[in-house]
Amino acid sequence: MTLFLHIVFVSETLEEVIAISPLCISTITIFFKIFAVIINRDQLINLIETFESKPCKACNKDEIDVQMKFDRSIRSYTIYYILLCTFSCSGAVAAGIFDILERRLPYNAYVPWDCTSLLAFLISSLTLIICLIVVTTINAATETTILGLCLQTCAQFEILKHRLASMAKREVLSPKSPLNNTFRKTCTLSENVSHHLCIIRLVQEINYLYRHVIFVQFFVSILVLCSTVYHVSSHLTVKTLTTLIVFLFSMFVQIFIYCIAGDQVTTKSFGLSEVVYNIDWTFMTISERKDLLMIMKRSTKPVKLTSSFLVTLSLESYGNLLKATFSAFNLLQQF
After folding, report:
1. DSSP 3-state of 307
2. Where does the UniProt annotation place the signal sequence (predicted)?
3. Which of 37, 34, 313, 332 is nearest to 153 (CA)?
4. Residue 311: DSSP 8-state
5. Which one-letter DSSP state was computed for residue 246?
6. Burial of 157 (0-12, 13-18, 19+ CB in 10 A)
7. Read out DSSP for 117-143?
8. Which of 139, 211, 223, 288 is the most buried (most CB within 10 A)?
9. b/e map of 227-239 (b: 16 or more CB within 10 Å)?
10. Residue 190, SS3?
11. Counting Cβ atoms within 10 Å, is residue 32 exposed (0-12), middle (13-18) or buried (19+)?
12. Phi and psi torsions of 167, nearest 5°
């Protein structure tokens, strides 16, 4: 809010607005994410509980191994992203300290009270730096949650593939044995179809919970990246190097997380039809073949994370976003 007040009451030129707008827009976006999570808190809890219950819950050692593989990936990506956010925040805090040493409020902030006294100035400056740290923490939590949910969905596709392949293998090895009959009772094709439909509903639920966040993040990223690149190119100073370049890299990674998460979900959903195709259908009954056809038919329609018809999370969309960013940057350079 203090950055927005500075733009409204203090900034007089386009250069000043562009210099402040990246951090201002990013902060407003994070508050929007907080609001979205609070509003959808119950649905988010139900979504997590669905991942932990049948048919999504891993049932044997092989499925647990698949689940653990994705859990380790989520943990690693989360740690890497938190380290990046910490590095970015450290640069911003360092820039704020430079401002304090020059007896200016950090980040060109504006406060509606008198900061001429040293105590008021230090309290205001410390408050702004603490707010930046809190906002960075919330941002890291939001992005890693979305990535984690998408990778958990990918884990479900892998578990379903394993179940289909295991069922087909048992059919081939012992089509008439009691063991096979027991397996049919516990893990039938109809259950796998239900699992597949459950995964699709999970993706739809994730998409519903974060559709507004995806839309806002996508277009805010274009504005922030464009204005940041423009400011860095025209104000290459020590302070700029410690803040905006690290901030710029973090923004590229942030939107990349959204796009790679959506792309992974789409890729895993496509791979399911190939697994079904490779099953030996000659050992299946007519009813089971119909179930397999149902899975294949649904797998031909890609599962995507979208927000309206404008935004689809994929690597192609990430490339289009970079093109739009630098097109806008070239337009700004003409002024």
Report:
1. strand
2. none
3. 313
4. E
5. H
6. buried
7. SHHHHHHHHHHHHHHHHHHHHHHHHHH
8. 139
9. bbbbbbeeeeeee
10. helix
11. middle
12. -65, -45
String of DSSP letters for 266-329: HHHHHHHHHHHHTS-GGGS-HHHHHHHHHHHHHHTS----EETTTEE-SHHHHHHHHHHHHHHH
CA-to-CA distance for 330 and 302, rounded, in angstroms? 35
Please tell me the total number of residues recorded for the chain in this structure. Answer: 335
Nearest to 28 by CA among 16, 40, 36: 36
- Name 296's Cβ contacts closer than 8 Å, sequence gap at least 6: 273, 276, 277
CA distance 109 to 247: 18
Joined tokens for residue 196? 């597949």
Strands, E assignment, the chain:
306-307, 311-312
pLDDT per residue, tens digit, the chain (335 aa), is 566 565 555 555 666 666 666 677 777 888 888 888 889 899 999 999 999 888 888 888 888 999 999 999 999 999 999 998 888 888 888 888 888 888 887 777 767 777 778 888 888 888 888 888 888 888 889 889 999 999 999 999 999 988 888 876 665 555 555 545 544 534 577 888 888 899 999 999 999 888 888 888 888 887 788 777 777 677 666 666 666 777 778 888 888 888 898 899 998 888 888 888 888 777 777 877 888 888 888 888 878 888 766 788 888 888 888 887 777 777 766 66
End-to-end CA distance of the chain: 28
DSSP class of residue 301? S
**Pairwise CA distance, residues 117 & 129, whole Å:** 19
